[in-house]
Amino acid sequence: MFNYKFVSIRFYEELNDFLNQDKRKKPFIHKFIDRTSVKDLIESFGVPHTEVDMIIVNGKSVSFDYLINDKDDISVYPVFESFDVSEVQHLRPEPLRNPKFVCDVHLGKLAKNLRMFGIDTLYFNFISDVEIVNISLNERRTILTRDSELLKIKAVTHGYYIRNTDPLKQAGEVLKRFHLEKTLKCFSRCLECNTLLANVNKEIILDRIPQKVKESQSEYFICENCNKIFWKGTHYLNMLIKLKLISES
Predict the structure, then answer these.
(1) 83-92, 217-226, 230-239: which range is least confident on average?
(2) Measured between alpha carbons, how far is 145 from 164 in angstroms, rounded to an integer?
(3) Residue 102 CB contacts under 8 Å (≥ 6 apart), including other chains
(4) Where are the domain boundaries for CATH 3.10.20.30 in the chain?
(5) Would you say 226 and 189 are in contact if contact means Cβ atoms under 8 Å apart?
(6) Pick from 142, 155, 160: nearest CA to 17
(7) In the chain, ranges of CATH 3.40.50 domains
(8) pLDDT tens for residues 114-141?
């Protein structure tokens, strides 16, 4: 016969997005046999450690390595949650000073939308989770994903789980979550490869421009990585509409 032990645990605010309905916004009892780290316990409910900023056990803050005990009272708080508790221990690393991102393989449309805003965003059609984590660590990029399992990898320090499924709403979510609204440099990056665009003299690229465009446009940009030419034509107006929808989402 098993000798079960019990803890009471509650998740706060947006951490409830990861929980089954019956466990949201209230304390619930979890029974266990073998002691485990509070990090493993939290992630067993589907909550990635990258979403957690503080853990309070029996009125005191603990680290992810804390081993749970019988009758522990555990409260789990997200990043930026405020407390009236002394001597708390923040678990998240300091936010990256210059936010830049790497998207997983399912967020290609989000990556393009962020690039429209001039936000440094890497995306690859084929890339493994290990490669994404390595890019995040080596280039100090925040991982954007809808795969919570990716964010549970222990090495991940900066990551965010995208809640929305619509690409426009996803972009608005990222802007608000990382407070990027005042740092935007719209239409400054190549939508295909993320490289910063450079001004190019019209005379140099005359043979690459349609006749109607030559007659109506005087300002041109080039991606020095993939060699694409850009100008503010009808696609630019369409992107302005898209940006307005994103900012209002």
Answers:
(1) 83-92
(2) 11
(3) 121, 122, 123, 132, 135, 136, 139, 141, 142, 143, 144
(4) 5-78
(5) no
(6) 160
(7) 93-185
(8) 999 899 999 999 999 999 999 999 999 9
Please tell me what DSSP assigns to residue 79: T
DSSP 96: P
The pTM score is: 0.81
In this structure, of 35-44, 49-58, 73-82, 88-97, the range with the lowest mean pLDDT score is 88-97
Nearest to 13 by CA among 68, 67, 81: 81
Q: What is the dihedral of CA 108, 249, 160, 21, to 10 degrees?
A: -110
Q: Say if CB 168 and CB 113 are below 8 A apart.
A: yes
> Which stretch of DSSP H or E encloses residue 239?
helix 234-248
What CATH number is given for 93-185 in this structure? 3.40.50
Closest residue by Cα to residue 14 from 79, 75, 64: 79
- Topology given in CATH for the domain delimited by 5-78: Ubiquitin-like (UB roll) (3.10.20)
